[in-house]
Every structure is written in C-alpha cells, then in structure tokens.
Amino acid sequence: MALEPLLRALSDGRTHSGEELAHAFGVTRAAVWKQVAKLADFGLDVEGVPGSGYRLRRPLDLLDAAAVRAALDAGVAARLAKLEVFTEIDSTSTYLRAAPPPPGKLDVCLAEFQTVGRGRRGRPWTAPLGSGLCMSVGWQFAGMPAGPGPLTLAAGVAARRALERVAGITIGLKWPNDLVFDERKLGGILLELAAEAHGGAHVVVGIGLNVSLPEGLARSLSDWPRGAVDLKTALGREPPPRAVLAASLVDELAALFVDYPAHGFAAYRTEWRSADFLRGRAVRLDDPGGTIDGRAVGIDADGALLVEASGGRKRVVAGDVSVRSTR
After folding, report:
1. Which of 233, 250, 274 delimits the end of a domain?
2. Which pLDDT band holds residue 122 (cuts at 50, 70, 90)?
3. How far apart, in whole angstroms, are the C-alpha atoms of residue 264 and residue 191?
4. 85: β partners
5. Quick check: 157 and 173 in contact, CB under 8 A?
6. Which strand (E) or helix (H) includes residue 272?
7. DSSP 8-state code for residue 271
C-alpha cells in the first residue's frame, strides 16, 4: 500500500475507519495500520479513535502539481520545463542541481517533506509534512551574471513581493537570506550558482517557508531568540492555499531570472534596504577570522553587509550574523 493515497484520504481531518480505508485501497486493515504508524515519521499527529478509526488532528492542505501550474502566470507556466511535487525527498535543491533546464525554461520542485533540507552553512531545515513550503526553482543563465553575489538578496526581494501580493503581508529581510516577521524567522532562502561547461550558469533557489505549524513548534524550529513564526500566525487567519503561495513565489523568481542579467542587483537594492531587518541593530559576526561585535548600518551597492565595529567599518561578504542582546 502506497503512503500517498492514505495521506490524501486523511487530509480532510475527519475520522476514517480502518475497514473503510482497507476497502478503498484493496488491502488489509493491518496494512492500513502499518502505514498510519509511518505518518509519525513525517511529524504528523494521527489520532486513533477506538471503534471509529483514524484521523489527523490537523487537516492538511496537500500540494498538487496541477493546482500550482493553474495558479501560475500564463507566461511563467509556458516557461516550465518541469514541475514536480514529491511527498518525500532528500532535498528539492539537490534534485534540481543534477541538471539545468534548457535556456529560458524553469524547473520547479516541491516536496511535502524533506529528509535533509538545508539552510545556510549546512544547517538542517525541517518541518512537519504539509506545514510549510519546501520548494526549489532552477534556471540557466546564458552566462555568469555580473555581480552574482547579491543574487540571494534579490531572491529575498522576490519572495517579499510574492508574499505581499498574495497574502497581503509585509516582511523584513535579514542579511543575507532570511525572511522575517515580528523579529521571528518566517523562512529562508538558499541559493546555489554553478558555472556550466558550455559557458552558462545554473542557479537553483531553494525556499523554505513556515505556513501553518503545529501549535508549540515555532519556538523550537529556529535558534533565533524569539524562535520562528508561521504565516498563519503572522496573518491572524488562515493563509492562502499553499499552491497559490508556491505559484506566486515561482512567478516572482521567474521575473528575477529574466531581469537580473540586464539590471543586476540595482533593480532590487532600494527595496531590500527598505526591508533591512538588521539596520541599526547591534550584531555579532562569526566567521573563520573570529567574532566581531558591532552595529549593522546597511548594505553597500554590491549587497555586502556594513558593520560599524571598534576597529572601524567592516564590509561583510560572508559569515554568520546574529542580533546581539544589548542588555
């Protein structure tokens, strides 16, 4: 018995008897029970109701490739080389890194659950199945774009635009790759750019977004002082369907990929600065050269973080930056 049909059947949050499920899938009740037990591995809370059956304590808004495709801008949909949705995968970005799409085309991969999702500096990024967006978008530039360094920052602006457009929420951006709301982490971006042998450049942008987390999980999901936040909490209501959120992110990233070779980061710099979460805050920079405390004073024209420290102004192009307590 495959796991996906069981997820679809239970996703409505209603109680389904073992007999009903066994009959629907042509298996034994014991086979159903074994698959139900596996759902805990995905972080799902399955309740066994004595004499009645099984139900998920929280209904799931499961992703569907056709629904994502239908929500895309028509011009972006025409650029798709592939759009795939997996119930489980090691990493959406790893999957897309294997080969670039044809020039001018997009690869999109989404997953309900990642087993080795990664954040910045190789940190693990995981969330219970169906509680967030785990997605990557691939593109092939004709050549290595000028000023590739701040491309991650530009991707943050694209994500910000997407969320404002479909969810009506304005978020902050923490250098270099975090999405912020109310001083809590809403999501993150991991961008990987590699030169191809024929002269092109393959970029894969991975986005992890907290959409509707189980109660009590947000604080433990991030090492930020106030933990993480999901879109449902930030909005104070049910968020848009995940297919709509995913499509909006793909639309904005597609526009970025087309626009960036001609205009570079200059077209995104002003908006990034207006959303700069770190500007004016006391920060701590950890890099191979040691630890530096100072105050973030914005970014320069090339997207480097500027930090005023005791030894003068430092231009930061790589490293781990956290907000420092001033108490």
Report:
1. 274
2. very low
3. 16
4. 110
5. yes
6. helix 266-274
7. H
Chain centroid to CA 7: how far?
Answer: 22
Same domain as 238, residue 179: yes
- Based on the domain organization, do 263 and 306 belong to the same domain? no
Predicted confidence at residue 243, as pLDDT, reads 97
Interior/surface letters 258-291, b for 16+ CB within 10 angstroms, e for the rest = eebeeebbeebbebbeebbbbbebebbbeeeeee
What residue numbers bound the domain in which 182 lies?
65-274
Q: Are residues 301 and 225 in the same domain?
A: no
Which residues, in sequence order, are bridge partners of residue 138? Answer: 107, 204
Residue (of 313, 315, 295) closest to 305 by Cα position: 315
Q: Which residues are catalytic?
A: 120, 185, 324
Q: Are 83 and 65 in contact (CB under 8 A)?
A: yes
Say whether 116 sits in a helix, a strand or coil.
coil
Using the 3D structure, point to which of 56, 76, 91 is the last residue of a domain. 56
Is 81's pLDDT higher than 90?
yes
Total of domains in the chain: 3
Residues 200 and 237 in one domain: yes
Q: What is the CATH number of the domain that holds 221?
A: 3.30.930.10
Residue 57, judged by CB atoms within 10 A of its CB (0-12, 13-18, 19+), counts as exposed
Exposed/middle/buried for residue 120 (C-beta within 10 Å: 0-12, 13-18, 19+): middle
pTM here? Answer: 0.90
